[in-house]
Design brief:
The protein is of the alpha/beta class. About 35% of the residues lie in helices and about 20% in strands. The protein has four domains: about 10-150, P-loop containing nucleotide triphosphate hydrolases (Rossmann fold), CATH 3.40.50; about 165-200, no CATH class; about 210-375, DNA-packaging terminase, C-terminal nuclease domain (Nucleotidyltransferase, domain 5, 2-Layer Sandwich), CATH 3.30.420.320; about 385-580, Nucleotidyltransferase, domain 5, CATH 3.30.420. It has 17 helices and 26 strands. A seven-stranded mixed sheet has the order 8-14-11-10-9-12-13.
């Protein structure tokens, strides 16, 4: 139109190469020769010069076809210097591949092209795809001296905020959504955003790369396992997924057992939490705090009561900046210390979210980032091995049963065990919410049904203080139960460690039944030294139900001469804690 109206007299078209520029000029020649509207309006404008690289119209307007690397000095036409230049798609993967290549493009623009197009009132128009955040078109878009327009293939309607196709006659919204899904499935969402949405991601600074996604069929035995749920607030197709991951830390290695993103309703999230608890026996199940308090915690409590077993829910505080939070995983992926088990095919969505990050959905990646927060401190019993887990522990009819009790205002715990020929056998355990007054009766009844014999109840010395505020012993008295004073829990800690390291008659001196699931969780990592935000490791274990449970067990193992107790002797204690032999059964 500028040529037909003679608004500009000397117009260079500059392509990435001269053949590309010649294609543009050929299209213009075709319009001038065949477009009925132009012919009716302006008549036949075809001039005597009508070559592949240069045409001159009858109105004396000249259009050149030049390659980006061609010389542009002295491209005058008659007395006219170039007054309008069109630079079309001169950037490609090669000249945007690195800082030096991008700088070379910018320097040619300012040192060659702009001086060549310098007639009074001259204008330059550049069309292109932003291949990199630091590409020429992106640099110019930030300059106040250049007017910028972007035309993505689809956009949000400013009134309804729904997606709509920018040029529906060219590609409908359904077609664009289908293309986008294909790019996502190939892990190339950045390419879709670049080619269709005019948004560039720097490949050099991409946080997660395809080659960092490693898979290995790691055998799952009794590793400390954790689960995280990032609940979505809505379940329509425009909303986020509910992100879920199940993982273990093996020293610095992060092993991902399960990952998924689903449009789950609240009851479906709750049902899956209990399924995950049954399948993996996780130490903690982390749930983002907002979702937890809004619609999940109450149904979890109800089902826990129905099952007679709580799930280890851990509230997680949502991060202030999700993108920075997820980027915290990058060093582990860069060091190739993240393992998808058993294969990448078993984790279809998470690797794609990471490779496409920060574009697209990030809910599963956000759930995985909580692994950094839930990473345990050093386990109190780091010498616990798979050999300490015995699936079919034989019960002894001739040896007494002990119930290691402990309680706080928040939880009441118990571990059922036997001492058989010098070997401690942990048979069952219980963790109940609430103090002993509301829990002890049910725990003792379940333990008695398990053994079908009387059980000796032992609790840590803290419950025998004159200033006891928990009420474990008073609750026991109301049930006509006697609780014996156990030994020092710190000494018991060393007793447990020693028994884990020793053997007795060719077998470990301490073994655990898989039915004692809380004890297993505690041994493999639930009972661990607290780790603060700065990474400092405390000497004491982190507070919580696992510490309560294991201190009850430690108190039994440190109980003075507990290994000497036989079937015919029963010991009692005075109010001051002095032990004496009694005929009472």
């Amino acid at each position: 139109m500028l040529a037909c109206t003679a608004s500009e007299m000397n117009i260079p078209i500059i392509g990435s190469s001269q053949p590309r520029a010649k294609e543009r000029l050929a299209a213009i020649k075709h319009e001038i020769e065949n477009n009925d509207y132009l012919l009716k309006t302006f008549g036949d404008l075809k001039g005597d010069t009508w070559a592949e690289t240069k045409i001159v119209l009858k109105n004396n307007v000249c259009i050149h076809a030049l390659g980006w690397d061609q010389s542009m000095r002295g491209i005058k036409h008659l007395d006219y210097r170039p007054s309008f230049g069109w630079i079309d798609d001169i950037e490609d993967e090669e000249n945007t591949a690195g800082p030096d290549a991008r700088l070379k493009v910018t320097r040619r623009l300012v040192s060659v092209v702009m001086p060549a197009i310098d007639a009074p009132g001259a204008r330059i128009r550049i069309t292109g795809t932003p291949l990199d955040p630091e590409s020429l078109v992106e640099k110019l878009a930030k300059s106040p001296d250049w007017v910028t327009r972007r035309f993505p293939a689809k956009r949000r309607n400013p009134q309804t905020h729904e997606w709509e196709a920018t040029w529906p006659e060219r590609k409908s919204l359904q077609q664009l959504d289908s293309i986008e899904r294909q790019y996502i499935d190939l892990g190339e969402l950045d390419a879709f955003n670049r080619e269709y949405m005019c948004t560039a991601i720097n490949e050099e600074t991409r946080r997660f790369k395809q080659e960092q996604m490693r898979a290995e069929p790691v055998p799952r035995t009794y590793q400390a396992t954790y689960a995280v749920y990032d609940p979505a607030r809505t379940t329509n197709e425009l909303s986020a997924h509910t992100g879920k991951v199940v993982f273990s830390w093996d020293r610095n290695r992060l092993i991902i057992w399960e990952s998924s993103g689903n449009f789950w309703k609240p009851d479906e999230i709750v049902a899956d939490i209990f399924t995950t608890d049954d399948k993996y026996s996780p130490i903690h199940i982390g749930v983002e705090q907002d979702g937890l308090h809004e619609f999940i915690m109450q149904p979890i409590r109800h089902q826990s009561i129905d099952r007679g077993q709580p799930v280890p829910i851990k509230p997680l505080k949502a991060p202030k900046g999700k993108l920075n939070f997820i980027q915290g995983l990058q060093p582990f992926f860069a060091a190739k210390e993240v393992i998808f088990s058993p294969s990448l095919e078993a984790h279809l969505q998470l690797p794609l979210q990471l490779v496409n990050f920060p574009s697209g959905r990030i809910d599963i990646a956000n759930a995985l980032a909580y692994a950094l927060i839930m990473r345990p401190g050093k386990p109190m019993f780091d010498n616990f091995q798979d050999t300490h887990v015995v699936p079919n522990i034989l019960l002894s009819r001739n040896d007494p049963y002990f119930l290691a009790l402990n309680s706080t205002q928040m939880h009441t715990t118990a571990v059922l065990l036997q001492l058989v020929r010098g070997q401690y056998r942990i048979l069952r355990d219980w963790i109940q919410e609430g103090d002993a007054g509301s829990s002890l009766k049910d725990i003792h009844k379940a333990a008695t049904l398990e053994t079908m014999r009387p059980i000796k109840l032992i609790a840590p010395p803290v419950h025998f203080s004159n200033y006891d505020t928990i009420g474990l012993r008073s609750s026991a008295r109301q049930l006509n139960l006697t609780v014996y004073k156990g030994g020092d829990v710190k000494r018991g800690l060393e007793e447990v460690r020693d028994n884990l390291s020793q053997t007795n008659h060719g077998a470990p001196s301490l073994v655990v039944s898989p039915h004692a699931s809380w004890s297993l969780r505690a041994f493999v990592g639930g009972y661990a030294r607290a780790l603060d935000k700065t990474g400092f490791l405390h000497e004491e274990a982190a507070d919580g139900p696992y510490r309560t449970l294991m201190e009850g067990l430690q108190s039994v193992l440190s109980f003075a001469n507990v290994s000497d107790v036989d079937n015919t002797q029963v010991f009692a204690q005075t109010a001051s804690g002095q032990r004496y032999l009694t005929a009472r059964r």
